[in-house]
Amino acid sequence: KRGRSDRRMRKGYQALTQGMVAVAAGEPDEARRHARRADSLLEEPPLTMLLSAQAAQLNGDEQAAKRYFSRMLEDDDTRFLGLRGLLRQAEREGDLKGALEYARQAYDIRPQTPWVLNSLFDLSLKAGELERALEAVEESRKRNLIDRETARRRRAVILTELARRSQAEGKASFARDYAKEALDLAPGLVPAVRVYARLLIEQDRGRAAAKAIEKAWAHQPHPELVDLYLQARPAKTPKDRYARVKRLAEKAPGHRESELALGRAALQAEQWADAKRHLENAGGQ
Question: For residues 259 and 278, what is the distance between their CA atoms, to the nearest angstrom?
Answer without folding.
Answer: 5
